[in-house]
Amino acid sequence: MTVSEFYPLPVSEIREKYYPNLANQTYLDHAGTTVYSSLTLDKIHEALSKTLLANPHSLSLASRDTASLVEETRYKILSIFHADPAEYDIVFSLNATHAIKIAASLIQDAAENSFNYYYNINCHTSLIGLRTLAAKYATFDDISSFEPVEDKDGKYPALNFVSWTGQSNFNGQKFPLGWCKEFRRRLDHCYTLYDASALSTSDPPDLSDANSSPDFVVMSFYKIFGMPDIGALILRRSTAKQLVEKRRYFGGGTIDALTIEEPFCRRSKQLHQSLEDGTIPIHAILELSVAIDSHYQIFGSFNSIRLHTDEIRKYAICKLKQLKYGNTGRRMLQIYDWPDAKHGPIIAFSLLSPAGDPIGYYGFGKLASARNISLRTGTLCNIGGIQKFLDRTNEDIRQDYEKGHKCGDILDIIDGKPTGVIRVSFGAMTMISEINTLVKFITEYLKESNLNIEEGNPGEKHELVVKSLTVYPIKSCPGYRIPEGRKWKLTKHGFEFDRSFVLLDLLTQKPLLLKNNPRMALLDCRVDPLKHMLYVRDKRGGNKLWVSTNIRRYKTKQMGDFIAISERKMVKFFSDVMNIGCTLAEFVTEKQMQNKTAFLLVNERSMRQVSKDDSLISRFRANIVVDSAHPYIEDKLSVLTDMDSGVVLKKRCKCDRCYMITVSDRGSRDSSLLVELSKERKQKGKVYFGVNIDVENVGYRYMRVGDRIVGEE
Q: Where is the MOSC domain (predicted)?
């Protein structure tokens, strides 16, 4: 199967010429945001260099020119949607969600907080959130399931508000613009909102018939053009005018006359001006104007984009449905779409094991990222799609939350059922080769690697030797390698000073993690157990800091679950290194400081099976590095006894490796180790290397390099 060419240039030439940022990338997350072109960037730079933008509320020539630019951009946007400026106006917003809030505030003020709200179950979270403003709310899946809500006395409220999406951001299913006619027929005083955010990426809705179009249409331009990061609310003049007259709040630039003390106020008669509180984002609007022109220059028309993305989706569906296990003939994945429904360029699916059981999305997303494949996993801000297609009840969602599951976490399978999906989405510049890369990766991912673990022999013993010991005083920062010959104290919870501190983000009040903040690798951390001092050095500039391990002797402040140093010098030191406001902190209580397991142990012999570069072993952030006669022997062992110190260790589980091992000692990203590891050590979607162990018996309460360990299967 091939894909036809619909653009002025072949898509391969378009990619090479206008999208250098996509070189060596497989980008399949256009529903999140599409990609901006180099042509857009060049033209924006030229326009900003030659154009003097001024506040359009002023009366200078530059201000007037800026106002003209803004109005021209409004016309360009309305033209995309075939919307007659005599029938529609457009209000700039931060994004589609902000546009939804503007529309909702108009409804709320007009109804005096008493209206019924109806929303489609396939909609984005942002539309669900409006139910908290309504007197009553109800959901519907299709127009046939739509039922008006009556009051107790059998009457309807003075105002009704209905919203639905043009295209599900879950799986791309499309929903008719024309539903609004039926809503108006069945409900009195009905206002309608249509979320065109996902749809407009490839197929902007046609608003040429104002009488059969929604009252409000929302969108985000980064989903259409890649930039700028603003959105808009398109509204029908005939209905919006009535609502604006009842609007309560007013901001700068929205009024024609106002007194300071008496409640006298006259709003602007320009509809958009009466709703755009404060100065509009004039620089972003210029960028938008340029982006629109560049998009047309590259792709010709949105109809061409729709035809291209439709072909890409058909090709992807065909290839994905062909994926089957050779030994059983069972399919490798389940695609979530609706029979006979129209779909935009989005596909949602779950991976399946040879036995037909669901495989979690987290490991897949992790390794896809390591291969430069961008896609989306999880609940996708579309809980309706999750409940509908994954057959999850309201009670399931509540119970999952009680078990610790939250949006965006790693709990992808609970009680044998998936909590989310994998989503791939396509855009104007998506290529067939990207689909082929995805299909190849899925095939490789579902092929189990040989973990090189033979059946164990209970009771059989193996000798190992401790090659290095490392403590990590600051969690996620480089560790301090304990010198040979030095005994290091341990307790039931691990080595003394290990992961005792964190770098706390002053804004979120959460610890920084290396996998999200690679600059943590730039800190050299050492600890003096006799002086109880922590030595921290910036590897780049040499700036250093001595800190007492008793941080409560300094000026501190409790921030959530942490006690954080608030002294300016120390805050500045850590913030300068990290380029983010942060400081050294510890948990409020000792119990909170305890790690899930006491130690991580890895084997040098096993590492040599993965890479010849011995220095890479530091990326695993192990407390104990051993050597043995055979690789991967640590996987078999259940109990390890230090014959020199009497310490007894018990294995809890194999260690599932995360993005942390992609961060080099210089703070740069390098996914090669994770990729190689996945070839050798992948099982049921997870990549294992090393073992997590706890202290069963503290013995003489120390360990040191060179200790002899006997491991028992």
A: 557-712
Per the structure, the complete domain to which residue 157 belongs is given by 47-294
Beta-sheet pairing, 599-603 with 624-628:
parallel
- Locus of tokens 């109005």: 71
Is residue 121 located within the same domain as residue 255?
Answer: yes
The token duo for 29 is: 């997350």
Please tell me which residue in 180, 381, 477, 655 is annotated as part of the active site.
Answer: 381
pLDDT recorded at residue 591 = 62
User: Of 575, 593, 611, which residue constitutes the final position of a domain?
Assistant: 593
Q: In this structure, are 279 and 315 located in the same domain? A: no
pLDDT digits (tens, 9 = 90+) for 355-366: 999 999 999 999
Q: For the chain, what is the radius of gyration of the CA atoms?
A: 30
Q: Name the token pair of 301.
A: 């028309």
In the chain, the number of structural domains is 4
Tokens coding 117: 């709200």
In this structure, are residues 79 and 291 in contact, taking their beta carbons and an 8 Å threshold?
A: no
Active site residue 381: yes
pTM of the model: 0.92
* Helix, strand, or coil (residue 432): helix
- Tokens 């969600």 correspond to what residue? 97
Average pLDDT over residues 42-63: 98
Q: Per the domain annotation, does 663 fall within a domain?
A: yes
Give the helix/strand (H/E) hosting 677. Answer: helix 672-680
Decide which of 658 and 650 is more confident: 650
Alpha helices in 343-462 (DSSP H): 361-370, 383-389, 394-402, 432-445
The strand ranges marked E within 123-200 are 136-140, 160-165, 190-195
Task: Quote the Cα angle for 278-280-283, to 5°.
Answer: 145
Q: How far apart are CA 124 and CA 103, in angstroms?
A: 16
Sequence-distant (≥ 6) Cβ neighbours of residue 556 within 8 angstroms: 563, 564, 565, 566
Q: What is the DSSP letter of 348?
A: E
Nearest to 637 by CA among 450, 494, 460: 460
Note whether 588 and 617 are same-domain residues.
no
Per-residue pLDDT band for 408 (boundaries 50, 70, 90) equals confident
Residue 44 to residues 5, 51, 133, Cα–Cα distance (Å): 28, 10, 40
357 located within any domain: yes
Question: Which strand (E) or helix (H) includes residue 258?
Answer: strand 255-258
pLDDT confidence of 254, banded at 50, 70, 90? very high
300, part of any domain: no
- Measured between its terminal Cα atoms, the distance across the chain in Å is 53
Give residue-wise pLDDT tens across range 115-171. 999 999 999 999 999 999 999 999 999 999 999 987 666 565 679 999 999 999 999
